[in-house]
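Bit of a strange request maybe. I'm writing a small parser for structure token strings and I need a real example to test against, not something I typed by hand. Could someone generate the tokens for this chain?
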Amino acid sequence: MEAQCNRRESLRMMARAATGVALSCVPCFAESESTPAIPRRTLGRTGVNVSVIGLGLGPLGLGGFSPAELQATAEAAIREGVTYFDVQWDYGEAERNLAPVLKAHRSEVFLVSKTWEQRRTKAFASLRECLGRLGVECLDAVLLNNIGDFKLDLLTKPDGVLAGLKEAQKEGFVRFLGISGHMRAGHFVQALDTGEFDIVMMPINFVDRHTYEFESKVLPVAARHGAGVVAMKVLGGAFRYDTRRQRARLAAPDLVSAIPYALSIKDVATAVIGCKSIQEIRQAARIARSFRPLGAEETARLLARGKHLAAQWGLHLGPA
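Reply from user aminoacidic:
Good idea to test on real output. This should exercise your parser:
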């Protein structure tokens, strides 16, 4: 993939060409010679091809894992062909602990972080702080986290968060903008209808579709605007998220069908999985490599099972 740099990075490259140092935040996604590549899909209007499995750093950041464990798992993900990395400021020390991996492998990672800020100056400052913790020149994307709790009337005002993120784009600190969250699908629809967001990250699993209706309400709007779709809460979310004993809400045998279900949904580019070990990364990679779209009979079975579980889970991700 030919590297492309934004204006700021291009100027830096020209200024430092004599030293042979090329600063670029655009992933090259180098292939491994020994490991078959995980399939990739285009992330909507970004035009970037990303692995169909992404690594969520939340479990490793919040579960009491050491920096070495996080780094070993992240490096294993890269070796397996995972390119999409999801992290944010409140995942413990995940951003700082990921920094050494990024220093060695920045060109192989589509790096995504998030902000909760809703005002221009605070959003811009939060992004600068994020870059410092990660030790990078720019992010590939920043998502407005938990958009379901945002005051949407502030979104596009001159002192709102969008103005701050656009300023960051102009300065070359971030390439793409997006939204994420796990409740109030209506907020997603309103935000996407501004036409300002390139990426949307939402819960996609065969249980919560019956409760939160992201698939029926948000996916058509995302398609209309060409926004890249990232699946989250694919395994139903986690129990005991802040401990090493955390586990997925879905249990076997339902767990086996969770990733194939998400990847069978039209327009889903990648499914972010909160892996916490090299073994879990390898398991997710195997599922990605062997993926085949679910047939009608299997889908119907899962939806029936999901409806039963939804009655038990209730509003576990927040208000619908």
